[in-house]
């Protein structure tokens, strides 16, 4: 687990290599992404309604994660905004400082996780005071591909968050 955490921090540090002032200025201009934008051309996402709830006495949800069939590199190093739901990984005080951004409520918790190319590992220098798993958020920051694994799921993307706000269109 320590190596996974070290690898994640290395990926995020590479994404966050711009000076803070430059990143903050860039955060005002971003590319709006939707979850389908993270899929290779021609691939469709697994709709949440198709993913059945599981018996928690069975194998863990990560063992039931569908295989990912590639990633998109179009937005590597770009400032993006993507909506989603927070699955906390690390806390700093009472705020979340690292989390998995997922496309629907309950992903990675109550249902098998989506494929890795439908998950984004997010870190933030300022912990976000989340109101819970049902809160939809918009995350803005530097985006890139990353191959990492947590106890909950394999993840194909990473985002160094500059701004996290409650979801709005």
From TrEMBL:
Lineage: Bacteria, Pseudomonadati, Pseudomonadota, Alphaproteobacteria, Rhodobacterales
Pfam families (UniProt xref): DUF3299
Keywords of the record: Signal
Entry-linked InterPro entries: DUF3299
Signal sequence residues: 1-27
Identification of the protein by name: DUF3299 domain-containing protein
């Amino acid at each position: 687990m320590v190596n996974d955490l070290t690898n994640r921090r290395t990926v995020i540090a590479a994404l966050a290599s711009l000076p803070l002032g430059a990143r903050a200025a860039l955060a005002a201009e971003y590319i709006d992404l939707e979850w389908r934008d993270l899929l290779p051309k021609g691939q469709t996402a697994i709709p949440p309604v198709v993913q059945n709830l599981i018996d928690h006495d069975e194998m863990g949800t990560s063992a039931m994660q569908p295989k990912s069939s590639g990633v998109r590199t179009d937005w590597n190093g770009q400032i993006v905004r993507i909506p989603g739901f927070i699955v906390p990984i690390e806390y700093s005080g009472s705020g979340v400082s690292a989390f998995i951004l997922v496309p629907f409520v309950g992903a990675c918790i109550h249902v098998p996780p989506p494929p890795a190319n439908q998950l984004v590992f997010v870190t933030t220098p300022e912990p976000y005071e989340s109101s819970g798993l049902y809160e939809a958020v918009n995350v803005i920051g530097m985006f890139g591909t990353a191959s990492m694994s947590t106890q909950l799921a394999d993840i194909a993307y990473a985002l160094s968050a500059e701004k996290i706000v409650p979801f709005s269109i």
